[in-house]
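Troubleshooting: if your tokenizer reports a length mismatch, compare your output against this known-good record of 319 residues.
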Amino acid sequence: MSTTTASAATGPALPATAVGKPPNPARIRRRRHLAQWGFIAPAVIFMALFFGYPLVRNIVMSFQDYSPSTFFTGRSPFNGTANWSNVFNDELFGKALWHTILFTIGSLIGQFCIGLGLAVFFSRRFPLNGILRSLILLPWLVPMVVSGVVWRRILDQDTGVLNSFLGTIGVGGDTPWLTSTSMALISVVLVNIWIGIPFNMVILYGGLQEVPRELYEAASLDGASAWRTFRSITLPMLRPVITVVLVLGFMSTVKILDLILALTDGGPADSTQTLGTLTYQNSFVQLDFGAGAVVGNILILISAVFAVFYLRANRNEGK
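Known-good structure output:
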């Protein structure tokens, strides 16, 4: 009787074939890898089509005799390093490279210093703080071509608002801001500083909000001056943000084209010619697409070097 009860309690024994096989670890890993690639495949395809292909095509073009006739004949024979040699032997390339260095360094210093000063200023609470910060963002929101056209009218030697104002107060009134070879590059740098200040201010202002208030309170209790507090607390805490601002600012400034075209078109006498404008001149004015590709590759290489610097700096900060 007890044997029958025990058998009923335990139920019928399951056949060996009904027991499922243990999962295959290799198959699970393979499915997981396929799922991961499925998620990143759209991004990889997008990058390959819209970034990888143009980059490779530009590199190949720099070693080809690519002229307007190529669009009709389809022939662009390889000419070795002839395009590179012509660009490096061109006196204008050296001038454009030097102007690019001056333009980039001057713009970055001006944008960063003024942007940091405004970020520190607006980090304090006072009436109309938000409204004033919003107004300062306007130069950043206006398209660069529009800013260039407006500033070209402002800086016009004969009818510009700036010279009219300076003449009214007796300081001057006939300064050739955009028509003098000694003043044109300075004027372009000042306009670019005006455009880039809001970006620097916004990023640095966001970084200042992450600095613990307790550090400033402790410094105040220790009797630290405002400059000592800024040098010993603010700047070290902002170091990662400063790195981001400077590197991104460099990568956007070194290749600027539209602003210079709107202001001076690279003149007068090539005094504002940069690598960005030289690429445009070679490709779309002189129709020497091979030379334009060479200068474009040089810009890409310069940007890539600073991108590597940015990644290494961030990795070191993470450690």
